[in-house]
Specification:
heterodimer; A: Immunoglobulin-like; B: mainly beta; Immunoglobulin-like; 6-stranded mixed beta sheet; 45% strand
Amino acid sequence: GESVGLHLPTLSVQEGDNSIINCAYSNSASDYFIWYKQESGKGPQFIIDIRSNMDKRQGQRVTVLLNKTVKHLSLQIAATQPGDSAVYFCAERVGVRRALTFGSGTRLQVQP
Amino acid sequence: GAGVSQSPSNKVTEKGKDVELRCDPISGHTALYWYRQSLGQGLEFLIYFQGNSAPDKSGLPSDRFSAERTGGSVSTLTIQRTQQEDSAVYLCASSSPGQGFEDNEQFFGPGTRLTVL
């Protein structure tokens, strides 16, 4: 069945370093992907999205890479800051079905 | 402007009791979603409302779960005869009408933490 998972449950980086969070998905029919950031006690917050007809998309300090061949998604955060500390989720969607399927999350810890 | 709000923020109930969780979406958002997040886990889709269309209930885990959306705005998620495994954070999200293929961004509320004793 469908599944979206993450390789690393916890990632610890030094402030100022770049962070890379990875996600594997199994549904080759997924055509839309989103990264969310969730801080403690809050709902998920949209970071960046990408459609399946793209392999890279950049935002402010963040880049999402999509490799459909190996069904892999990554989130790169440049110059990681303490405020980036949170749990990051990837999510996928298939076609007209609007509901998102979420991965289990990676906790990013930024050391000052 | 106001975001998605949910109430109560915390709910403690006894096994077997019914609970109602409320979601107020962002004004003008026609799409509304309920998700459930168990401790340390990702979000699990429960139900989706879009305008006057029939809701997508494919994520509801059992017939003890139901939801309604009145007047295309406020939504209530009801869990009957609660069980301990129902303990989780219940998150609501809303989005504005999609432009063709894509929905616009889903905005999440802070969630309701449900604890079933």
